[in-house]
């Protein structure tokens, strides 16, 4: 029996950390923050234990809580005071994200990334302007299941939303609607208005996933009818993800995000191998909620499984991780 090679030699406590291949740091993490223009006090999100919707007046205090843990970046999601068919509050000068961004950038050192999408702002809950002929019926279905979001009309809304965030002081914008051409349209708008230094984190490979449920409660952005299969990616497809990412790179994406994370680690790894841009992964609400649910049953250790989950995302190739565990894990790491 040849035991010349003994990998266990490098698993002894004093050497284990020296040969560790992957590290996780607070600076790798981005914390989502939900700003709610409809409330005067913090509202717990039942399906996401430990998270809240906070009023605009509390936005600075909420971000300061994040910064105290060592996390340096936040992603802002807004719940507007009113909604309409086109989601016009998404680009309003006095909109919820715009006002929160102004306050946070003026009073903290946080790096502020803003979600650029319309699902929280449209009364129908879809990520853009609907094509002509679509309406909700009494049974909640669409008149024509082949019709969906009007791609090119939505581009104009995304342009206006992104520039309004930049004007308010956003450090980075993150379009998440999976609209064809969204990165190029936003890059063109930002550059044309003198914001050529504002980077774009593109949701370059965003799948139509069952893991988004708790987020839609948190952001009040669930579709009023139908689903998002006509514009978000088929979970069965990997080669298509490379095509989507490649298109966003050509249009000027600075950071490439894969969503969700854990069920799509193969995609994270593929994007890391194929492209030079920083890679981000979104450890989504369902991934967060299922660990909490199992921990509440006593089936898993929450701290250990959360940290292992984020480490696996980092090991797969993500440089940045957008996660609801950001604060808890950052405190552990410190």
Automatic annotation (TrEMBL):
<feature type="binding site">
    <location>
        <position position="285"/>
    </location>
    <ligand>
        <name>5-aminolevulinate 2</name>
    </ligand>
</feature>
<dbReference type="InterPro" id="IPR030656">
    <property type="entry name" value="ALAD_AS"/>
</dbReference>
<feature type="binding site">
    <location>
        <position position="119"/>
    </location>
    <ligand>
        <name>Zn(2+)</name>
    </ligand>
</feature>
<comment type="pathway">
    <text>Porphyrin-containing compound metabolism; protoporphyrin-IX biosynthesis; coproporphyrinogen-III from 5-aminolevulinate: step 1/4.</text>
</comment>
<dbReference type="InterPro" id="IPR001731">
    <property type="entry name" value="ALAD"/>
</dbReference>
<comment type="similarity">
    <text>Belongs to the ALAD family.</text>
</comment>
<feature type="binding site">
    <location>
        <position position="228"/>
    </location>
    <ligand>
        <name>5-aminolevulinate 1</name>
    </ligand>
</feature>
<protein>
    <recommendedName>
        <fullName>Delta-aminolevulinic acid dehydratase</fullName>
        <ecNumber>4.2.1.24</ecNumber>
    </recommendedName>
</protein>
<keyword id="KW-0456">Lyase</keyword>
<feature type="binding site">
    <location>
        <position position="216"/>
    </location>
    <ligand>
        <name>5-aminolevulinate 1</name>
    </ligand>
</feature>
<keyword id="KW-0479">Metal-binding</keyword>
<keyword id="KW-0460">Magnesium</keyword>
<feature type="active site" description="Schiff-base intermediate with substrate">
    <location>
        <position position="206"/>
    </location>
</feature>
<keyword id="KW-0627">Porphyrin biosynthesis</keyword>
<keyword id="KW-0862">Zinc</keyword>
<feature type="binding site">
    <location>
        <position position="117"/>
    </location>
    <ligand>
        <name>Zn(2+)</name>
    </ligand>
</feature>
<keyword id="KW-0350">Heme biosynthesis</keyword>
<dbReference type="InterPro" id="IPR013785">
    <property type="entry name" value="Aldolase_TIM"/>
</dbReference>
<dbReference type="Pfam" id="PF00490">
    <property type="entry name" value="ALAD"/>
</dbReference>
<feature type="binding site">
    <location>
        <position position="127"/>
    </location>
    <ligand>
        <name>Zn(2+)</name>
    </ligand>
</feature>
<dbReference type="GO" id="GO:0006782">
    <property type="term" value="P:protoporphyrinogen IX biosynthetic process"/>
</dbReference>
<feature type="binding site">
    <location>
        <position position="244"/>
    </location>
    <ligand>
        <name>Mg(2+)</name>
    </ligand>
</feature>
<feature type="active site" description="Schiff-base intermediate with substrate">
    <location>
        <position position="259"/>
    </location>
</feature>
<dbReference type="GO" id="GO:0008270">
    <property type="term" value="F:zinc ion binding"/>
</dbReference>
<feature type="binding site">
    <location>
        <position position="324"/>
    </location>
    <ligand>
        <name>5-aminolevulinate 2</name>
    </ligand>
</feature>
<dbReference type="GO" id="GO:0005829">
    <property type="term" value="C:cytosol"/>
</dbReference>
<dbReference type="GO" id="GO:0004655">
    <property type="term" value="F:porphobilinogen synthase activity"/>
</dbReference>
<comment type="subunit">
    <text>Homooctamer.</text>
</comment>
